[in-house]
Here is the input.
Amino acid sequence: MTVSTLEAPERHADSAALPRENRASKLLINQDFTKFLLSQIVAQFASKSLAVVLPLMAVITFAATPTQVGLLSAAQFFPVFVVTLFAGAWLDSRPRRPALIAAYIGNAILAASLPLATSLGLVHIYVLFFVAFGMGSLIAFSDVAYQAYIPNLVRNDQLVQANSRLEIAFSLAMVSAPGLGGLLIGAFGGSTAMVAAVVAYVLAALGVLTIRAREKHVRLPARGGEGTFKRIAEGMKFTAKMPLLRVLTLQGAWFNLFEQAVLTLYLLYGIRVLGFSPQLVGLTMSLGAIGVLSGSAVARLIGDKLGTTRVLILGMGVASLAPVIIPFAAGSQAVLIVLTTLSFTIYGVGMTVFNIYGISLRQRATPDGMLARVSATYRFLAFGAIGVGGIVGGLAGDWLGLRPAMFFCIIALAAGWLVFARFLPSALSRFEESERAAEAARNEPQPV
Here is the structure.
């Protein structure tokens, strides 16, 4: 079997007029990608902070019940099931840059509606539900658009670099933004926190607007032509028929399901078994950002040494097995803090390395005209599994007890990793053989 690195095929290199690099932006690949990265950082911090701001507004302003808070949180993430597949079908026949700009402006308008309604005395908890679902829908839409847009900004041999930088930004936002949202609403109130989100989304839209690289002409579907559901089905079939995409997608869904189950259990296990305060539970999880930064720093080095196949298996193995430290942790509180933090840090390293190469490989394996639909299919299955994982973790904790349930979920993660390690090499080898055959066909002399 040939072990690969992420070399650049010609397909994406010719898909857009890519901007040139200069010394000032070499670290961030090129000027247009730098603008895109900064826009994503601002937008991600806004969206991740709202996951805390909106529920806190419901509690503080309307004395919301736990059920209402849970439904409000679900309203922000439920659009993953509703929007992503349709977004992928729609975006594969349209430019992604204006779609991103429109999504950010839409979120700015929705965020502005809350302080406006408050000033007019019209705010109600149902307004929060409307805003949560609307912004969740636009966030799900923009998440599909940005992944399909990246190959228009960088060469294929720069995808690992690009996704590494984006992974740092997204992971740090995931860890830090909820705390930032809580600080904003605690210090200045919900209306000010929403105004900050408005500013963030406007800045994100302006950043994407200033990007100079243009996408290639996208064929719009003719009136009366293929329908949306047919295009969605094509994205699913393409993912299912290509062994490489199928393996990556199924592993992503399996891992996210049981990872979320472990995280759900840890919230209870940390407090009831380890004796942590809620703040300490959050701190040990947040310190996993150390692993995110470390994984991003070493991903390219490890990939160059081991090749794509081994680095994907290694990253997934580290992420899958790292949680086993938690149920085995024992000792003083200081020791428990160190051990649980170590678990989340190791997990952060493995997951970041896997994500960087996994995303890059999916982009490399997918034709431009299918990229948004394949990304949407992946997000529908892999991200949809997160919500199911929370339910699985809660039920397992009730039926088995917290510690046995954690072991059960960790064993499931390990089993998934072993299956992944068994099927990935052959799937990636078949894909690389098809790449070499296509390259040879392109290089054959054409008959005169």
